[in-house]
Amino acid sequence: SLADAIEARRLLFPARGAGEAAVVRPGEVLVADSFRELILGLREGMLDHASAEEHLRTPVEPHVHEFADVRGQPMARKTIEIAAAGGHHVLMVGPPGAGKTMLASRLAGLLPPLEPEDALTVTRIHSVGGLRDPNDGLLSGPPYRAPHHGASSAAMVGGGGSFLRPGEISAAHCGVLFMDELPEFARPVIDALRQPLEEGVVRVARASGAATFPARFQLVGAMNPCPCGAGGPRRQCQCSPLQRHRYVQRVSGPIMDRFDLRIEVEPPDPALLLGTSSEETTAEVAERVARVRRLAHERGVRSNAEIPPHLIDELAPLHPDAERVLFDALVEGELTGRGLRRVRTVARTIADLSGDELEIGPATVHMAMMMRARSFSMQDLVT
Questions:
Q1: Considering only CA atoms, which of 113, 109, 190, 112 is closest in space to residue 147?
Q2: Could you count the other beta carbons within 10 Å of the beta carbon of residue 277?
């Protein structure tokens, strides 16, 4: 990042970090680890040149958790696949031990590798934030960040003293930001998500200066159905209706509305968990995800979740029967105008995964609405 900021034809860097500097700037990057080495090198004309090509030949491969390990939860698996394919934000509600964290940690592994420009941007962010070894190559896979719910605003958004650093929101750029125990995050931290979710950037202003960091990420939230965590059809919740209401209301409506997919996650079915049948692997699911992402690029958008309102009719056309389903839902109050576009983008993704790349049918719309519907544990969420 220092090399990227300084305008000079030639720069001198220690061996540790010289390769990274050569990647981000067009001029010469010379290598010397001490003043003695520098003086001797200048005197004899023997200073080494850092090689960007050599640095780029050794990309950092992300650690991928195997999706086949998630067993006994077919609906949750399908939701994560849809989220990955369409770039949709997803909220999981369920008791402790239901597997929410396990599901979230496998989402990044389903996403396609980073494009070269995105890989460079993500590597720069992680370099500025001190999150990587300068000797490592470019980050080749989408990052996965899971900050603790006690994280401060500065840790999440970015900031610092005389040197502004990116926060967790920017560290998740082009990847996944998992916020477990979402209602336990401080309200200012949760509300700080609104700008990056809307604009794809974070603007940080401090007494020492201001900075704008990239922050286009996929948000995955997880929460218990109530403060005691025992809510749900299989358990006896000890919380009062007021306590449950206050718990859900810790997350503002505008943030809740950003979640295209809202699902309940129950503990795995023991019969399926202990059975001998195998689940699809990360590679198998990622292949379908990559195909849907390619379709979105061919339509001129980064992902289906980013289809703008003025293109929704063109890129997500509805069968007449599907139009009637949405019309009835709007009339009955099951869906608001604010949620209509988001349901259609999810339906577009479901249709693409099924191979229906033209009109979206009524069954697909029903499924998209079901994945955004209210439930016993989400009765205070907006639609």
A1: 190
A2: 7
